[in-house]
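Before a computer can learn anything about folding, someone has to put a protein's shape into writing. The three-dimensional part falls to structure tokens, numbers that each stand for a local backbone shape. The protein below has been through that process, and both of its lines are reproduced in full.
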Amino acid sequence: MDGQSIDLMADIGSAARLAAAELAYATPARKEAALSAAADAVWAQRQAILDANALDLAYGAEKGLSSAMMDRLRLDETRIQGIADGLRAVAAQADPVGRVLAEWDRPNGLHIQRVATPLGVVGVIYESRPNVTADAGALCLKAGNAVILRGGSESFHSSGAIHACMLAGLRAAGLPETAIQLVPTRDREMVSAMLRAVEHIDVIVPRGGKGLVGLVQREARVPVFAHLEGICHVYADADADLEKARRVVLNAKTRRTGICGSAECLLIDRGFYARHGAVLIEDLLAAGVEVRAEGELQEIPGTVAAQPDDFGREFLDMIIAARLVDGVDGAIAHIRQFGSSHTESILTENDATAERFFQRLDSAILMRNASTQFADGGEFGMGAEIGIATGKMHARGPVGAEQLCSFKYLVRGNGTCRP
């Protein structure tokens, strides 16, 4: 790690610490005003953002990015409208800072409260998706945190254009512009500098592929909220409603293949298969999905024989692995072996079977009769998300503003002394 990166990180980090101290007591109204103004700026500057995105798309094509990565990178007016809407949704949420999480009285007369507080400074390292610039900036600001954003080299121009809108929002509300900082260089050394900046950053959130997240988890000295992969399963139970199952399976795989909530494995109960045949597989094939099938499913025309490493694999493409299982326990055993603790969905009309699935799996998100594509903070009513956390410490599932808070204890006495 070169000295220039260390010096730049020190400058950015010191400024972030000062901004975080001010944000910790900023009023809800000022934070809401900043985000609303940023949303207005995003829409007003949409052509500038699209022009910047065109530069990034050309850069990504030159680098040979996959179709899934290019889809994550691409912006259009609809997606820019979504960015602005996300900012407004976060702005309208109840402020999470200062919430009384619990309170109680002790026999000695002490009154104790546990109160939500900001984490401090959040570092976000992300690839491709320029919308993360707005989502992460908004959620961190709402929770009273300063944020240091390090976007991928492929989204450099788009992220810069969106960041300029976030700064306009901060200025309009009279909040420090250093509350939302974007690393102003493509230099990869800045990633290493952030991962080691324990004196400046309280938590790192990586958003990207397995390579990036694995690097962060291996090398970070700062605590990390992360998921390594989104290996999401859909299980069609014997008691599934056929039409619901057909809709959900297609949506879970094909709506957007490049997101972490895309289904990567279809598990079909032998009872469902005996009753309904190959209809789920045929639907996927008709939609242009490559189905990598195992066992009896290989006999379905158009499928490809699955290889052992196709299970537990994140394709992020129009590809899905498929296997027959023996009931819900067979599905549970498969997911325990091959899952990544992200999102799993069961398709069934049997309440007891669904409850068994929910109780015996420990993924961050479990669904019933719903597409795994709903694994998203915006769809959970959080306005946006900074990522999906699959670990078990502090935050799990979509990380929104509430999850970007810690807490402190407020203890009130009346000259109370301990005997």
The chain has two domains: 3-225+399-412, 232-374. The chain has 14 helices and 16 strands. The chain has a mean pLDDT of 94. The CA atoms of residues 257 and 317 lie 5 Å apart.
